[in-house]
Amino acid sequence: MQLSIVIPFLNEAESLPELIQWIEKVMNENHFTYEVILVDDGSKDDSWKFVQSQCSSKPNIKAIKFRRNYGKSAALNEGFIKAEGDVIITMDADLQDSPDEIPALYKMIVEEGYDVVSGWKKKRHDPISKTIPSKLFNGVTRRMSGIKIHDFNCGLKAYRKDVVKAIEVYGEMHRYIPVIARWAGFTKITEKEVVHRERKYGTTKFGWERFINGFLDLLTISFVTRFGKKPMHLFGMLGSLSFLFGFIVTGYLTYAKFFMLEFHMTERPIFYLALVSMIIGVQLFVAGFLAELISRSSHDRNHYLVEKQLNLQ
């Protein structure tokens, strides 16, 4: 199978019929073998009724329904688990992503050899209250991750099958799949300018909180990718610096008390700062040791992604 199209949705009963019809038109024109995996993230409208009708009459349309709203990351992760195509396309169900972009995205994966191709909505049909924070968010993410793409938030992306089978998306990490993929060893990541359409039905499901959550998730994933399997490297370094600072200051004050006749060292604020630094240093060391114990007890502590094997029985 050439393509798996994974579409998470929440209360999109109005847009789904048009979207499915549009996808089928593009697939037939390009003679693709494909499947569409629809993931209902706890819809309360008639979305699931439409999906059931489609699944009963069209075997290449598959569906998953959550009992409640778990979020886009959970929906994508379940879709990735079920996907069987050589190339996986993700897109939103609100008709703002155009299925006409799929053939070009597929070509970039198959013919040009990219692992991940992210859509770039260069010209957006969104209010300034969304575009300005989005540019700020993308700029910070680009700088911290080192991945030179403009739009981490774009739902229209293409992945080689190996990528989605090697990663796990959880929490609100769907924005950072390119970052997760690069950490897993998939370095051929690029972007493609795509058309962004105005929303035709309903209202957006995201508010300002997604940008706040996004920055927190970025800090989380930056820490996990760098120190997830070696936490003592971070906590040990910080603990050493903190303890060393406190120890040196305390040593100087002790020397000054006995040899420089400064008998009131406890009246100096730096004395208490030194004590706090030493205590924090010890705590960081303990945190590092505990993190190492947890890491070494993890079931996937020696899980590595092997690209190829030759002559192995």
Describe the fold and architecture.
The structure is a single chain. The protein is α/β, with parallel strands linked by helices and 313 residues long. It folds into 2 domains: 3-226, Spore Coat Polysaccharide Biosynthesis Protein SpsA, Chain A (Alpha-Beta Complex); 231-297. It is built from 10 helices and 7 strands. The protein has a 7-stranded mixed β-sheet with strand order 3-2-1-4-6-5-7, sandwiched between helices. α1 links the parallel β1 and β2 (34-40). α5 runs parallel beside α8 (209-227) and α9 (231-259) packs antiparallel against α10. The model has no long low-confidence stretch (mean pLDDT 85).
Shape: elongated
| Oligomer state of the chains in this structure | single chain
**Element order: H for helix, E for strand:** EHEHEHEHEHEHHEHHH
Low-confidence stretches: none
Radius of gyration: 26 Å
Beta strand count: 7
What's the pLDDT, averaged over the residues? 85
List keywords for this structure.
single chain; 313 residues; alpha/beta; Spore Coat Polysaccharide Biosynthesis Protein SpsA, Chain A; 2 domains; seven-stranded mixed sheet; 10 helices; 49% helix; elongated
